[in-house]
Design a protein that fits this description.
The complex is a heterodimer of chains A (about 900) and B (about 260). By secondary structure, chain A is an alpha+beta fold. Among the domains of chain A are: about 160 residues, Multidrug efflux transporter AcrB transmembrane fold, CATH 1.20.1640.10; about 130 residues, Alpha-Beta Plaits; about 200 residues, Multidrug efflux transporter AcrB transmembrane fold; about 120 residues, no CATH class. Chain A is built from 35 helices and twelve strands. Chain A is elongated and about 130 Å long. Helices cover about 15% and strands about 45% of the residues of chain B. Chain B contains four helices and 13 strands. The chains are: A alpha+beta (about 900), B alpha+beta (about 260).
């Protein structure tokens, strides 16, 4: 009576726990954001987060809207922008109408945005085109080359809080009459999560049906099918419930857990039922059969649970949060399935008392596995050569595995975000931003000429990497202001002038996208089209190399004395970044020409200036200030005799810089015709530098490259590192466990051979299918090792037993294959049915995981069937006896705890 | 009883007939301050940012109130005298749409337009509209106004700015009843939030002229403030319209006598 109550209590407790966790699943949420894959404490991630919060560079969505002609419909462009801005969760919308622009002509400087500079309800298209000519990066950023598509860049609130589904509906309402494309990480993450969820909902029933089919084939009873399914339900409910308690939501990695648990969680109960049937047939006493079955399976099932858990727990060493979570929660689910098998199921069996079918005589049945083993042994040279060739071939192709994650392979080309990304890449030259962050160590350091020159050189250098890149930053605007005064885009080497330049733009609200004044922080946006991690990595390396080699991390400003050789040397060093960033190879010659020109007196410059042009300039000066200009002949005579009139002296005082740079430019053009005209004009302005910077000093300058593609690349490289660590620990733990249990190093090594083969084939197939190492595929090796070791352990232990009994290697292998491989293959196929259906998912990561894990489970089974018989049959009987008998002699017939457990389990 | 009721009604009707409308108050404010033709004022400007760091500047302001078809229009020239690196930087405001800047670093004068017409200049929190309000009590943009409250000492006037290109949606202005001087002004952004505050902390009424001696302007969005302190002021200086031109801006020394 007391036992009956205990059984009901056990069933009740398990049911209550299951119901509790199952109710938690009502709040199930799926979200995916690669940016959350790593801990916030990670330096790279936390830095990116910090910069993105300051400059709103994260949570960006891009919308391209088709117009008849963007330049003719700026009013409409602006009104769409305002409508998009009014949508919920939209923090900011940037487009061509409200982005900062500094435009100038001979008389006027216009700073602001098109909507503030122009009256958009009535404007002249030619005027717009003229304004945009001065800032081509703005035009390229927001208007397609054919002028028929306009781009809107939306900054969204914190992606965790934004309901992207709702936002998409609102965007559709706003743009329902127009053709539009959208892309961006929040949208990609939303689509990934949606696809992952629908994949799991679609695949899970098929996985369960497949397992039911196998269970029915094996047990041919209702209980034999239902009890393992109940076990799966309990372990899944608890594991998934734990996710909802400890993690905010499922990711595309953790959402695979229920399907994996269907495959793995069923095994323990299968072993129990199988043993219960066997024991019941022995004496027909259900109570005694359950007790014996539970006692006999307890340790082997515990061992199998521990090895599988070891495989999954090794994922915790991976530094990616979803992978760690998958390892942790799946391990919890496996432990629950163990408890269900040894505590809950025996109680349930005794309550429901399922019918047990009488066994048919299978003693003399033919075994396919035994036949395969015999064939393998017979042709072991051929088979082992073939296996070695396959092994070596796969080793050779492994280095070609990509670690990159391409959204298109994840989502497919029909996904909204992929269609949008492809369209925006084609029309606007890119949809991803990398950012160069800069911070000065001094107050108002952003006004410093060196700070701005560094920015400008970086922007120029980016174009040497790829001329299609579009970059915008603080120096885009400072150099534009300078251009409106001097006629050439450049950064003057003079602190006072720079302070004056900032008077014009520093209160422009649009500048806050690039500059935070209080800490002198700024960011350069570089738009790239690359989806490829290798390319992003190359860009990052080049940029970092340039910054490290040519930018001064601390400096002091000093007045430039051109006759001081030390100052001249420092000055030359500081200008190296100018030459490198513009791909100019004549640095030394151009610098020495600069030094020479700086030494020239003003009268020398006046004499070298083209006479007619000089007089024309003088005339317009006089006209502008309502002054009386000298006759040309007198003017020219005065120049020659250096007898300057007051008006001419005034003219010179107003135009000295322009005259000097023009004379220098002409000389540069003569000697360096291959250098781009714009670069020569810019360098010619350096003749007016009054200050220079020293390579060391008290002003600190901090520069760092970051951005979404950079972080993605970083996370992907961490994936590789995490996988290596996880694999290493997985191998180490399992090998140690086996060596300890068998008390033989060589037995341990032999048992681990199929694992090694499976691991190599696993990675080889990733390469062969042109998949990449991603959060899904990276975990397979560790998981499969956890599963495959079971097969080896069972095989080796049974072989050892048979060999010591018969002393006949071939016969022992045949018996081993005939007996133990049946159980192994049943387990392998149920597990396979848990993993492989994921291969039918729409989500790339899930598909790749399903296919590769399915193949790896099959390979691990086949490698056990092939490699171990070859190894054992290739060792001399005496040697094998020594290896396998060692422990027996040591322990005087006392069997290894673990091996005896496995034998009993068999 | 009837008599007292009649008397009360009489008072109410009289008050409504002879009471000032918001526009009347604003006109009186404008008249009280624009009763000079020319002025030179020297101001010390203390700029404070969110980090509590302070920068000091000194500016000379030259104002001329010119009349056009009966409408008084202020034009002004601002010259930075301190700090040294900004010395002689000059801004010429001829109207809301016509502004020039002279940068001594380039020795060039450029007309400035675009959003800068709505922006604050010289790194202060004052834009052109604020300046016309501050120095000539003129609200240049199209507006409608109403008195939202009134007590013994002051009027509070709500001003709705109807111009599309205005940075503000409305203003609330406090006017001293005695001198018809603006005591404070609050500027509201497009989303009806206060974006800027102007507080007249001290002013001088000499009977003839009203001069603001201490004005604090705070931009609430960027936590930046500008404190204008009058150093000296002169009225009726001999400057004419020709002084306010591009050539004057470039002169190292501004001579008007």
């Amino acid at each position: 009576m007391r036992l009956k109550f205990l059984r009901i209590a056990v069933v009740g407790i398990f049911s209550a726990v299951t119901i509790f966790f199952a109710f938690r699943l009502l709040n199930i949420k799926i979200s995916d954001d690669i940016m959350t894959y790593m801990s916030e404490e990670n330096k790279e991630i936390s830095f990116y987060r910090e910069v993105s919060e300051k400059f709103d560079i994260d949570n960006i969505m891009m919308i391209s809207v088709e117009m008849n002609s963007v330049y003719d419909e700026l009013n409409e462009v602006e009104s769409i922008r305002k409508e998009l801005y009014s949508l919920k969760d939209v923090k900011k919308v940037l487009s061509i109408t409200n982005s900062l622009i500094v435009s100038s002509d001979e008389y006027e400087i216009k700073s602001g945005s098109l909507s503030t500079i122009l009256d958009l309800s009535s404007y002249n298209v030619a005027e717009v085109e003229k304004i945009l000519e001065t800032d081509s990066s703005l035009k390229d950023t927001f208007v397609s080359k054919d002028g028929k598509n306009v781009l809107y860049i939306l900054n969204l609130d914190d992606s965790k809080k934004v309901d992207i589904g709702l936002l998409l509906e609102e965007i559709e309402k706003t743009l329902s009459t127009r053709t539009y494309y959208l892309t961006g990480l929040p949208l990609a993450n939303y689509e990934i999560a949606q696809t992952a969820f629908s994949d799991v909902v679609r695949i899970l029933p098929f996985a369960i049906l497949g397992i039911i089919a196998i269970l029915f084939t094996v047990f041919r009873s209702f209980a034999g099918v239902m009890l393992p399914i109940v076990a799966v339900i309990i372990s899944n409910a608890v594991a998934m419930g734990l996710v909802t308690i400890f993690s905010e939501s499922f990711s595309t990695v953790t959402i695979m857990m229920p399907i994996i648990l269907v495959g793995i969680g069923v095994d323990n109960t299968v072993y129990l039922i199988s043993r219960y049937n066997e024991e019941y047939r022995y004496d027909g006493d259900k109570n005694a059969a359950v007790a014996r079955a539970r006692k006999k399976i307890l340790t082997p099932v515990l061992m199998c649970t521990l090895t599988t858990v070891a495989g999954f727990m090794s994922l915790i060493t991976a530094r990616l949060i979803p992978v760690t979570q998958l390892g942790f929660y799946t391990s919890a689910g496996i432990i629950v399935s163990f408890l269900v098998a040894v505590v809950f199921m025996p109680a349930l069996i005794l309550i429901v008392k399922p019918r047990v079918k009488q066994s048919s005589d299978k003693e003399n049945r033919k075994s396919l596995w035994a036949a395969i083993t015999l064939k393998v042994i017979k042709h072991k040279v051929l088979v082992s050569t073939l296996m070695t060739v396959i092994f070596l071939c796969f080793i050779l192709i492994i280095p070609g595995i990509k670690t990159e994650s391409n959204l298109e392979t994840y989502l497919g080309s029909t996904a909204l975000t992929i269609k949008g990304s492809n369209f925006i890449n084609e029309k606007f030259g890119g949809d991803k931003f990398i950012n160069v962050y800069m911070k000065s160590g001094i107050e108002e350091g952003y006004k410093d000429f060196y700070y701005n020159r560094v920015q400008r050189d970086i922007q120029k250098y980016v174009l040497t990497i790829d001329s299609h890149f579009i970059s915008r930053g603080l120096s885009t605007f400072t150099s534009s202001v300078v251009k409106s005064f001097s006629g050439t885009e450049h950064i003057p080497g003079d602190s006072s002038t720079m302070n004056q330049v900032f008077l014009i733009i520093e209160n422009t609200p649009e500048l806050s996208k690039f500059l935070l004044k209080p800490q002198s922080e700024s960011v350069i946006d570089v738009r790239i089209s690359s989806n490829n991690d290798t390319q992003v990595q190359a860009i990052l390396e080049k940029l970092n190399g340039f910054i490290e080699s040519y930018m001064f991390k601390s400096y002091d400003k000093a007045l430039l004395d051109i006759n001081d050789p030390k100052a001249l040397k420092e000055y030359e060093k500081s200008l190296q970044s100018f030459f490198v960033s513009r791909n100019i190879s004549h640095a030394a010659e151009m610098f020495s020409m600069l030094a020479e020109h700086k030494k020239k007196s003003l009268s020398q410059v006046v004499t070298e200036y083209p006479e007619n042009e000089l007089y024309g300039k003088y005339q317009s000066f006089c006209e502008n200030f309502s002054l009386q200009a000298d006759e040309k002949s007198i003017f020219l005579k005065n120049i020659k005799t250096e007898e300057y009139t007051e008006t001419f002296t005034n003219f010179l005082s107003f135009n000295e810089q322009t005259l000097r740079s023009r004379v220098f430019y002409e000389e540069l053009k003569k000697f360096f015709p291959a250098v781009q005209d714009g670069d020569l004009a810019e360098f010619s302005e350096y003749v007016n530098d009054s200050e220079y910077v020293t390579q060391t000093g008290s002003t600190r300058l901090y520069l760092k490259v970051t951005g979404n593609p950079i972080i993605r690349t970083f996370i992907n490289s961490e994936l590789l590192y995490g996988q290596m660590t996880s694999l290493f620990f997985s191998y180490l733990f399992i090998l140690l466990m086996f060596i300890i249990s068998s008390r033989s190093f060589r037995t341990g090594l032999i048992a681990s051979l199929p694992l090694l083969f499976t691991t190599v084939i696993n990675f080889g197939f990733i390469r062969l299918f042109n998949f990449s190492l991603n959060a899904g595929t990276i975990t397979i090796a560790s998981i499969v090792i956890g599963l495959a070791i079971d097969y080896s352990v069972h095989y080796v232990s049974r072989f050892r037993e048979e060999f010591l009994k018969t002393m006949d290697i071939c016969k022992s292998l045949e018996i081993t294959s005939k007996t133990v491989l049946r159980a192994i293959s049943t387990g392998a196929f149920t597990t396979l049915l848990g993993f492989f259906p994921l291969g039918f998912g729409n989500l790339g990561i899930m598909k790749q995981f399903g296919i590769i894990s399915g193949i790896s489970i099959l390979v691990s089974l086949l490698s056990t069937v092939i490699i171990l018989p070859i190894v054992f049959s290739s060792i001399k009987k005496e040697t094998l006896l020594k290896i396998l008998q060692k422990r027996k002699a040591d322990k005087n017939e006392k069997k290894s705890f673990f091996l005896s457990v496995f034998n009993r389990y068999r | 009883m009837k008599k007292s009721l009649f008397f009360f009604l009489f008072l109410t009707v009289t008050a409504s007939i002879f009471g000032l409308t918001a526009q009347d108050v604003l006109d009186k404010v404008k008249d009280s301050q624009n009763n000079f033709e020319t002025q030179k004022a020297v101001y010390s400007i203390i700029l404070s940012d969110s980090n509590k760091t302070q920068k000091t500047r000194k500016i000379d302001i030259y104002i001329l109130i010119s009349s056009d078809k009966g409408e008084k229009l202020p034009i002004s020239l601002l010259r930075v005298t301190e700090p040294k690196d900004l010395q002689n930087t000059t801004v010429l405001n001829l109207s809301k749409t016509e502004q020039y800047i002279y940068l001594p670093g380039f020795k060039q004068v450029k007309r400035v337009s675009g959003s800068s017409k709505n922006e604050s200049f010289l790194d202060t929190d004052i834009n052109y509209s604020d300046m016309t309000l501050l120095f000539s009590s003129t609200i240049e943009q199209e507006h409608t106004s109403s008195i939202s409250s009134e007590d013994e000492k002051s009027y509070t006037i709500d001003i709705k700015l109807t111009a599309q290109d205005s940075d503000y949606s409305k203003m609330t202005v406090g006017v001293d009843k005695k001198d018809f001087v603006i005591k404070y002004a609050e500027f509201f952004g497009k989303k009806e939030q206060i974006v800027k505050k102007m507080e007249i902390m001290d002013y001088e009424s000499s009977g003839e002229y009203i001069t603001y001696k201490k004005v604090l302007i705070t931009s609430l969005e960027n936590k930046h403030s500008t404190l204008l302190e009058l150093v000296s002021s002169e009225y009726g200086i001999p400057i004419t319209k020709s002084f306010f031109n591009k050539l004057s801006m470039t002169n190292p020394v501004l001579v008007y006598r």
